[in-house]
Amino acid sequence: MFLTSEYEEERVFLITRKNEYFWVPDLHFPLRDAMDRFHEGCLLDGELVKENIDGREEIRYLVFDCLALDGRILISRSLDKRLGILRKDLYEPYRDLCNRFPEDIKMFPFMIVVKPMELSYGLQKVFYELIPRLKHVSDGLIFTARERGYVFGTDEHILKWKPIEENTVDFQLVLEFAIYTDPDAESKEDASYTDYDSKPTCHLYAWHGGQVHKPYGKLFLTDEEWEKLKQLNEPLDERVIECYQDSEGRWRYLRFRGDKDTGNHISVVEKVLESIKDAVSKEELLAACSTIRDRWKEREKIRSKRNGSVSGVNDMPGPLKRIKTDDWK
Q1: pLDDT tens digit string along 209-233?
Q2: pLDDT (tens digit per residue) in 233-257
Q3: Which candidate, 80, 76, 75, 91, places its Cα nearest to that of 3?
Q4: Domain 2-115 has CATH 3.30.470.30
Q5: pLDDT in tens, 57-73
């Protein structure tokens, strides 16, 4: 999310991974000392989610990082410093506005929420309290290095954990339909035609950079799944498709990725396959909580001696060396 101004008026834009800009009218982010003034030169990292609130869908924008605030570049600051600035200077005034003027904020297209974060060893609470209360779909956990700056693209110091069944890969789907020959056709020209109704061979192509996609594997589709895809009445060939591996090692359809122009890079595909092969289960993660806590406390003591104070909320989990990163699809 980008906060700026145009002709001395507040402007808010959402920016996609494709570098597309969408103007969001009727949002206001007041300053701490002036409700009628607004922030500008701000860049936030976050995501739009659909939440199910009492049977109705509502849009929320979850903020999980702040790259710049009022022209101050924050990417070199540690995570806890960035989050502290975000909460104090931007989110608290926004929440104060919402509390003081509940009728006025009804015109907002969606509400803003700072994404809840927990200590790296607070996994019991995350799994059994926080996730069950979520009103939107969550496919895993992210362990963010507390003392590092913001990294664009893939950050090798961030660990993403997903349940084994949620480890997925984005491929380009290429359909190969059978050629049917009618032995009773009156002419050779009418004898052969492409059979678009029957289930095709579904090739999966991995992205190798630029405009290059190369064959990687095949998608397994049941007849029922193919019928459902046909009922979409949408072009299917050369679309980006998110796939998972079943218990037999076959690639299966999960969903189409309309937000992406290419599948995952071949390097990411290989990383995901490695993580599937050497996955960490939820049970293993929970069993490691005490070790993660001990390591966290040890590092906290070192930081306390170095800085003369205790600070920070989030840290890297020490023993989870089998968790792999991907490109956060």
Answers
A1: 999 999 999 999 999 999 999 999 8
A2: 899 999 999 999 988 989 999 999 9
A3: 91
A4: yes
A5: 899 999 999 999 999 99
Give tens-digit pLDDT for 273-302. Answer: 888 888 888 899 999 999 999 998 998 888
Instruction: Give the up-direction half-sphere exposure of residue 60: CA atoms within 13 A in the CB hemisphere.
Output: 17
How many Cα atoms within 13 Å fall on the side-chain side of residue 125? 7
Which superfamily does 168-277 belong to? Nucleic acid-binding proteins (2.40.50.140)
Residue 196 clears pLDDT 90, i.e. is over it: no
Q: Are strands 30-31 and 34-38 parallel, antiparallel or unpaired?
A: antiparallel
CA 130 to chain centre: 18
Indicate the pTM of the whole model.
Answer: 0.69
